[in-house]
Design goal:
By secondary structure, the chain is an alpha/beta fold. The chain has two domains: 214 residues, P-loop containing nucleotide triphosphate hydrolases (Rossmann fold); 70 residues, YebC, transcriptional regulation domain (Alpha-Beta Plaits), CATH 3.30.70.980. It has eleven helices and 14 strands. The chain has a six-stranded mixed beta sheet, with helices on both faces. A hairpin with a 2-residue loop joins strand 4 and strand 5. Helix 3 packs across helix 4 and helix 4 crosses helix 5. The mean pLDDT is 91. The structure holds adenosine-5'-triphosphate (ATP). Adenosine-5'-triphosphate binds next to strand 2 and helix 1.
Length: 313
C-alpha cells in the first residue's frame, strides 16, 4: 500500500481565460516517506496538495490515500490524515489549549491536547490566546491541530514560509519527530534547503507539471555536476568565450547570471587549472572566484532557466 497515489491529476480553474493550474501530475508516495513538492510561486503546489487533501475537486484524475479513494471513502480518509494549510485562521478568542480541544473534538480518536502541545513545544503557552502568539508559535499550533487526530499522513503546505531561522529549525524538529514513528509527510516548499534537509524524495513542479523527480542527490546528479564553480572576469565575456568554457574538462553546464558565470562541474580539481589557463590565454582578469556544492536551486535553474524564488539573486 502507498500513502498517496495520484494519476493524471488535472485542475483547471474557471476564469477568463481558464487557468490550467495542474496539468497531468502522477505521484506515488510510500508509507514512511517525507515527500516534497518544490517549485516557484504559482507552480501549482497548493492546488495539487488541496486535491490530495480532499479539499478541492480535481478536474480530472484519481487520488488514492492510504489505500482508500477520495470520492468513495472520504470519511475514513479524513480520520487518517492531518492537514496544515498555507495560512491557518485560528479563532483569536480561544487559548492554545481550547483550540486543540476543539480540533480534537473533530476526531473519534487521537492524542490529548496536552500531548499535542508537548510535541510542538507550546506547553508554556497553553493559556495564551492565539492572537498573542508569535508567527513561529502560531505555525507550531497549526501543526499541533493537524497532529491532534494522530494522523498516519501529515500534509504541510509551506510550513515555514515567513518564519525566522530559529522557528524554521523548531518546525523541522517537529516534523523529524513525527517521522520517527514511521509515518508519512507530504509537504510543499519553495525553500530548497528545507526540501533537501527534510525530504527523502522531491518532485520539482513547474507550470503545473512535474519536471524532475527523485532523491535530492539524484536530482543534483541529473545536472551532471556536483560542484558549481562561479566566477567573474573584469572585461565582460563573449559568446565564443562561453562556448570555450563548455569544452573545458569536467564541465557539464555553463550558465550566466548578470556578469557571473557558473560552471556545473564533476571534478573541480580538473576544471580549475584549465579555466585559469584559458583566462590567461585570453588575457582576462579574474575578479571573483568561488566554488560550492550544487543544490536543488541549481537543478531548477538548469532545467528552467529561472530561479525558484523571485527574490533569489
Ligand atoms: N481559485 C483560483 N482561481 C483561479 N486561479 C487560481 C485559483 N487558485 C490558484 N489559481 C492559479 O493557479 C496557479 C497555481 O496556483 P497554486 O496556488 O496552486 O500555486 P503554488 O505553487 O502553490 O504557488 P504559491 O507558492 O504561490 O502558493 C496560479 O497561476 C494561480 O494564480
Amino acid at each position: 500500500m502507498n500513502a498517496i497515489t495520484c494519476r493524471n491529476l488535472r485542475k483547471t480553474y474557471p476564469a477568463k481565460p481558464p487557468v490550467e493550474a495542474v496539468r497531468g501530475i502522477d505521484l506515488t508516495v510510500q508509507v514512511g516517506e517525507c515527500f516534497g513538492l518544490l517549485g516557484p510561486n504559482g507552480a501549482g503546489k497548493t492546488t495539487t496538495m488541496e486535491i490530495l487533501e480532499g479539499l478541492l475537486d480535481a478536474t480530472e484524475g484519481e487520488v488514492e490515500i492510504l489505500g482508500q479513494l477520495w470520492g468513495r471513502d472520504d470519511d475514513a480518509i479524513r480520520q487518517r490524515i492531518g492537514i496544515s494549510l498555507q495560512e491557518t485562521r485560528l479563532s483569536d478568542k480561544l487559548t492554545v489549549r481550547e483550540t486543540l480541544q476543539l480540533f480534537r473534538s473533530f476526531y473519534p480518536r487521537g492524542i490529548s491536547p496536552d500531548e499535542a502541545m508537548e510535541r510542538v513545544s507550546l506547553t508554556e503557552k497553553s493559556r495564551a490566546l492565539t492572537d498573542k502568539l508569535s508567527g513561529g508559535q502560531r505555525q507550531r499550533l497549526a501543526i499541533a491541530c493537524a497532529l491532534v487526530g494522530d494522523p498516519e499522513l501529515l500534509f504541510l503546505d509551506e510550513p515555514t514560509t515567513g518564519l525566522d531561522p530559529q522557528s524554521r529549525r523548531q518546525l523541522w524538529e517537529v516534523i523529524h519527530e513525527f517521522r520517527k514513528t514511521g509515518r508519512t509527510v507530504m509537504l510543499t516548499t519553495h525553500y530548497m534547503d528545507e526540501a533537501e534537509r527534510l525530504c527523502d524524495r522531491i518532485a520539482i513542479v513547474d507550470a503545473g507539471q512535474v519536471i524532475a523527480l527523485g532523491t535530492p542527490r539524484e536530482l543534483i546528479a541529473k545536472i551532471g555536476g556536483h560542484q558549481v564553480l562561479e566566477f567573474r572576469v573584469s572585461s565582460g565575456t563573449s559568446p565564443e568565450f562561453l562556448a570555450e568554457l563548455e569544452q573545458l574538462p569536467a564541465v557539464q553546464h555553463v550558465r550566466t547570471a548578470g556578469e557571473t558565470i557558473s560552471l556545473a562541474v564533476t571534478e573541480l580539481h580538473t576544471t580549475l587549472p584549465a579555466l585559469l589557463e584559458r583566462l590567461r590565454q585570453r588575457n582576462l582578469e579574474l575578479v571573483e572566484l568561488s566554488s560550492r556544492t550544487a543544490s536543488l536551486e541549481d537543478v531548477f535553474v538548469t532545467l528552467t532557466g529561472r530561479h525558484l524564488r523571485d527574490d533569489a539573486p
